[in-house]
Structures are given as C-alpha cells and as structure tokens.
Amino acid sequence: MEGVRVLEVAQFTFVPAAGAILADWGADVIKIEHPVRGDTQRGFINMGGFQLDPNRHPLIEHPNRGKRSVGIDVSTPEGQEVLYEIAKTADVFLTNYMPQARQKNKFDIEHIRAVNPNIIYARGSAYGDKGPERLVGGFDGTAFWTRSGVGHALTPEELGGALPQGIPAFGDSIGGMNIAGGISAALFHRERTGEAVEIDVSLLSTAWWAAGASVTQGMETGETMRSLMPGTTTSVNPFMANYQTSDGGTINLCIVSPTGYIRDTWEHLGLPELADDPRFSDVMPLIQNAEEGVRLITEAIAAKPFEYWRRHLKTMKGQWAPFQSLVDLGTDEQAIANDMIVEVEASDGGKPFKVVRGPVQFNHEPLETTRAPQASEHTEIVLMELGLEWDRIEELKDKGAIA
User: Fold this and answer.
1) Any residues with CB less than 8 A from the CB of 206 and at least 6 apart, and which?
2) CB-based contacts of 220: which residues, under 8 Å, 6+ apart?
3) Do residue 245 and residue 356 come from a single domain?
4) Which residues fall in a coiled-coil region (predicted)?
5) Which of 16, 115, 128, 231 is the most buried (most CB within 10 A)?
6) Tens digits of residue pLDDT in 217-261
C-alpha cells in the first residue's frame, strides 16, 4: 500500500481498525480528529470492567497505530476547506459518521467527490447504508453481538438469560478487516478500470458473514444453533468435546474426521486398548458408542493435570487445543513465532506497548509500525506537506478550525 493515502474521518474502533490495517500494509493514513477532544474513544477510562491508563490506551493503540493525526473542526467552513485540501491528495476516504453528520458537516460522498472524483469512498455503519434503519447508529455490542443472533447462539439456553459480549470491540476489529479487504479490491478495480467505487460494510453484515453457515442452516430449517453448557456434549463424536483436567484446566479435542486418527488418539489418551475394541476402533462404531467414549475420555483426562496434557498431546496427530485466556496467548510460543505481537514506542515513554498485528502477513515479514498518534500530533506537518503557508496555518489555529 506504499503510495496510497487514506483520509480517515472516524471514531471508536470499527472503521479506524480498517485504517490501522491499511497502515500496517504501508498506506499513509491521516486520521482527522476534533481539535479539542480528539477521537471520543480517547476519553474512555474503562474497558470490559478494567480501568484504563490514558497514556497506555488499548482502545486507541489497537485501531490507530501507524497513523498520523490532524486536528480539524469539520463543522466549520474553514475546517471543511482544509479537509478538502487533504481529500484532493487521497486515494481513499474512510468514515463511520452517521449520514446526518456527513451531510451537516459536508463530507458525504458528493462533497468529497466534488473535490476528488477518483477517490474511493468507504463507509462503515451499524446496519447498512440502505433501508429504514439507515439513520440508526450502533456499536458492536448492539449490531454485531445482540441483534445479529451471534450473542444468542453463544449463550446456552439453560442460562435463562443473555451473555454480555465479553470482548470489547470484537465485531469492530473483524469488521475493520472486512473494510480493509474491500478497499484493497476497490483500489485494484480502479487501477484496472479507472472507476472509483463506494464501499459499505456494516457490523450486522460482519456478524452474519462470520456466522454464515449457521445462518444459512437456520434459514433452511427454521432451527437455531445454541452453545452448550460446560460438561454437556451432543455425544456424536467423542473426539470433539471439551474435557476437564485434574486441576480444572480444559483440553479441547476437535478431531472432526476421526479416520486415520483413532489408534493414535486412544494411545495418547492413555487408552490404547480401545483402539482394538470393536466399539471404538472405526468411525461408525465410535459415533454409535459416543456416549461411552465420552465417559472414558472424561475419566482419562481428569486423571492428570493441564500441563501434563498440554505437553503430552503435542505429538498427537489429531487436532486439539489447550483452553487458553487472552493473556495466555501473549506468551504462546506459536503466536510469538508467527509475529502476532508487535512492540511500539509507548506515548508515556515507558516500556514498549504490545499490540496485535493484523492477520495477513506478506513474505513472512514481521510488521514494523509506530504508536498511535497523540490527538492532532501531525497537523502542521501534514498541512505543510500540502503546501499551506505558515501564516494560513496560524490563522486557522486562531479561528479554532485546526489544532
């Protein structure tokens, strides 16, 4: 993406996450923030029940690393003129502001295309840019988790209530990746045809794509899938279930197709005799006797601690995983080996801040990026690059149009 300029007028995580991915890929992403308060998310002091350090802010670093921040009050005519000056040099305009705000502040597609007809205009929304709820806002907790059916599917029916979304900005980050992919396709299309397109991605559509197979099944049958309570299994395949260890850990077996894995699996579970037991030695009898198989595996795994199984099962041919927390992943050898964690300079001058890189890698190269900018940190630099004289910059500052 080197040589591609993205002009981002967006807040929170959903659309800014797309800008972060494009910045990871080499684009020059210019983030427009209010000259006084900046991105509203900078003021968040709590995330998922945890107090946040404003100088080491995950909800700012994750979706904003690698960008430059320019402070513009887009509600003023002077600020809008500066925005248009940047738009003239940009390949992509990226926003998640509501249609009402885009119209009021004159940065909807017709305003931006008036100064740059070849710009790709990308919108992120809660429920889509068409239909009766086009003007309704939302967050991933409403559009991605609650309304989409994802939260319902992941909440066991026996709970008698609804599980809250346990990961802040969960759908936002997935949706941001979708937007970045759409922008990449649009840039390719423009290169091939000369046509600049509009892009729309909603949190609702992001959730439905992520749950697509289950959504399709539901439309086919009218039945909805639900998560099961711990300790419950559908008893179809004993090699596909969660099993508790002696010290309360959990091992997930996920051998979807047991063919070719049966003997090796029983041996690793410490039950080699079952590989020759006609009830468990082939796929069909294994499925027919799944309930008994689950009982035997439950007893075997419950006999030893989590760390034993995590080491011992590394040589097993079938698929499995230790049940880890998000914190555990930070020290996961495989995650580290694949450069899933990136260190950036911390804005408070302290130890480096660790952020998660995007899932796409090129040529196995590690990611090099910079910390998220301070609000309005690069205003003068960017405007001088555009050719604005210092006297005009000072005048705009005095009027409060920029910071």
Assistant:
1) 144, 171, 174, 175, 178
2) none
3) no
4) none
5) 16
6) 999 999 999 998 987 776 789 999 999 999 999 999 999 999 999
